[in-house]
Amino acid sequence: MRRELSCPLLTALTAFGVAASAMPAYAATTDRPYFRAQSLVIVIGATEDEANGGVAPVAVDFNLLTPASSGTAAPDLIAGDGFVFNSNAGFDPGHDFSGGATRLILEDETSGGNFGNPGGGDIDYLEASDTLTSFGLDNMTDLNLRQSRHVSRFLVVSNAAFDMFAQASNLSTTGDFTSMGYANIGFRALINRSGGSGAGQWGSAAQNPAIGGSGLVTTLNDLGDMSAGPTKIFDGGRRTARFPGTLLEQAVSFNIRYALSGSPDAGIDNDYDFSMGVGTIGADVTYTVYTP
């Protein structure tokens, strides 16, 4: 007796193949939404100093940290250089330091010595319209430069960590100061996370960008330490923006103080003495964002 074997599975697959070949073909459409946030650092300052009609606050640098390699200056999309703010709580353009004789202050007077500015000129300059009351003195009384005179600042807002470099250049001296150099101008930098009030407020949504990095370089004491070329003054570890907010709300302030000393390796305190005579000394200091 002969037995025939049937294959139900093969029959089913064959039937399916015939049905599938009869189905119409459909084309597929693909979409690929994609977003990329570049590493950005914006420097906020003034267009020029106060004497030359500077306007502030203005974004003066718009830096892309990539594709620049680590340790190099970040490309800046804004052409030209900006200027700093002065040291008050608002957004006033920085002083024209060459506009007049730097104001002196009395130290350890025993009485009097009240300074007045009835002419309404720049309070930081000595002018013929200024007034000074007679003052008592003893063996401790002296004259010095006003400590807050040469204080500047600029704001920085970022979505990534960044470094800051500085270079001193274009030293100029006159009179009895011609023997001085970059090392006679003291330097110190500080970072304020927030400040100001009202329309001049900044930093309410910011954080300290030094965390995670080395922060401010503390071995820089005078402009002689940064006159040979671009010199790192800040090693960042994180972005300035902490919470959602505007650019000013997410910005921190770099405060820069300069001082005059009769001897090289100047400190941060002014140290003018009558024995230094009469003259001028000045330099340009350029601050540049670098890719960490």
Explained architecture:
- The protein is mainly β and 292 residues long.
- The protein has a domain at 144-290.
- The chain is 5% helix and 32% strand.
- It is built from 1 helix and 18 strands.
- The protein has one helix at residues 8-21, and strands at 40-45, 58-64, 85-86, 101-102, 104-107, 111-112, 115-116, 125-126, 131-132, 135-136, 142-145, 151-158, 163-175, 185-192, 215-216, 231-235, 252-260, 279-290.
- Strands 1, 2, 3, 12, 14 and 17 form a 6-stranded antiparallel sheet that branches. A 4-stranded antiparallel sheet has the order 15-16-13-18, with no helix packed on it.
- The longest helix has 14 residues, at 8-21.
Distance between the termini: 90 Å
* Proportion of beta-strand residues: 25-35%
* Helix segment tally: 1
Helix content, binned percent: under 10%
One letter per element, helices H and strands E, the order comes to HEEEEEEEEEEEEEEEEEE
State the secondary-structure class: mainly beta
Low-confidence stretches: 1-16
Largest sheet: 6 strands, antiparallel
Mean pLDDT: 86
Radius of gyration: 32 Å
Shape descriptor: elongated
Give me the count of strands: 18
Could you write a compact summary of the structure shown?
The chain is mainly beta and 292 residues long. The protein contains one helix and 18 strands.
Which helices and strands occur, and which strands form pairs?
Elements: H1 8-21, E1 40-45, E2 58-64, E3 85-86, E4 101-102, E5 104-107, E6 111-112, E7 115-116, E8 125-126, E9 131-132, E10 135-136, E11 142-145, E12 151-158, E13 163-175, E14 185-192, E15 215-216, E16 231-235, E17 252-260, E18 279-290
Antiparallel strand pairs: 1-2, 1-12, 3-12, 4-8, 5-11, 6-10, 7-9, 12-17, 13-16, 13-18, 14-17, 15-16
